[in-house]
Amino acid sequence: MGAYILKRLLTIIPFAVLAVLLVFIVFESSWISDVQIAQNNSHLDYSDQARYEKINCNRRKELHLDWPVFYFSIASSAIPKGIQSICNNYERDLLETLCLRNGNTSGAQDFVALLTLKIKETNNNELDQIFRKNTTEEIEKAVSQFPVLNQAFLTYAMNDRFYRVLIPRVTFHFSENRFHVWLSGLVKLDFGKSTLDNQPIATKVNYALSNTLIFTIPAVFFIFLISVFVGLYLSIKNGKLSSLISNALYVIDAIPLIWLSIIFILLAAYLGMGYSTMSFGSDSLLGMVSRYSLPIFTLVLAAIPNVSKQIEQAILTVKNEPFVKTAIAKGLPEKSIFIKHILPNAALPIIILFFDYMAYAFGGAFVVELVFSINGIGMLMANSVLANDLPVISAIILYLILIKMTLTVLSDVVSYLINPSIKF
């Protein structure tokens, strides 16, 4: 048992690592430099840009954006160490461009430092535009009217050391990197703060997840409670009632979940039930029932056709197995065959289906939350997407991945307990 669980966990670890890396990439892409707001608008004078740059520099230090991304980095030897500590994006990009053009790192640093100093001394926007030049020819033409800068640029250009560009440099950063900071926070369930309202992401996601679980767990329970009975009945009985139930299930299954949700809201309003999101303010038992009864009923009704038909198919598959036909040929009672032979063997796919549907329920919950205005994980995801709040989105994705992996392991463990003959 222990060896089997260990093997399953070892199988999941590579996928978990890949998921964490992908979420980190999404998280990293969310931090857009504030100073670009000023730098991308040429009508702003240097004082405005300097103000935005100061804000951006403080923000970069707060988020450790002046640190390298990973535990190690591979770059050209021409790129100076610590280039990430430069707050100004254009200044950093220009320095990197010049270093990669001819490998003269010291000459490029001297030129960029002198250019930055002259801009601060003169507040000259024409000098600032040099940072936006893409080629050495454009830069040389732009600085030609400034003798000091022109001399510094010529000194850089004449000392060609292109061979340094082709030599790679591997640098190990140990714990001083952004991935380590992010991973350390992840272990503590600290995902940082939302870019939308500066609130702790873990608090927002945990609150939304609790609201989602309140109605998805009862929904899954009722789905399988009803579906097991429906599937058993359809697999045993063959008659007009079975045919009627099957046809009804096909009709319900053809209705999209979002349509079903809207139909029930309109039906509740027509019948005078007065369903409203305003009823979500009460934490009493009656308030909870009023709050979640209709969303639960919607999820249950939408899922019963699919689940019950799969349960029916699982039972019918076992009934056609040779050992069942042998038991019938021996004259064993039909009830005894069904309880002792069919149900235990059909239980395994049903258990797997149960855990799979726990994960599927979150997908259905997204739609239900949007229609019924429930402040759950689906509503939070939708609002975060509209607000481009990528840190929250990445945290939600990671939560869902971890939930899916946990359910997969539980499914494997329960399956092994039911049938120890399962091999890895």
Jot down its keywords.
17 helices; 2 domains; mainly alpha; MetI-like fold; 424 residues; two-stranded antiparallel sheet
Protein described:
The chain has 2 domains: 33-62 and 72-172, no CATH class; 201-418, Orthogonal Bundle (MetI-like fold). It has helices at residues 2-28, 36-39, 46-62, 89-102, 105-122, 125-128, 136-143, 147-158, 178-187, 201-236, 240-253, 257-270, 285-319, 322-329, 334-372, 377-386, 390-418; strands at residues 72-76, 168-172. It has a two-stranded antiparallel sheet. It is an all-alpha fold and 424 residues long. α11 crosses α13, α13 packs across α15 (334-372) and α14 runs antiparallel to α15 (334-372). The longest helix has 39 residues, at 334-372. Mean pLDDT is 82; it is low at 33-46 and 277-281. The chain is built from 17 helices and 2 strands. It is elongated, with a radius of gyration of 32 Å.
CATH H-level superfamily of the largest domain: MetI-like
Largest pleated sheet: 2 strands, antiparallel
Class of secondary structure makeup:
mainly alpha
**Total number of beta strands:** 2
Whole-number mean pLDDT:
82
Q: End-to-end distance, in Å?
A: 11 Å
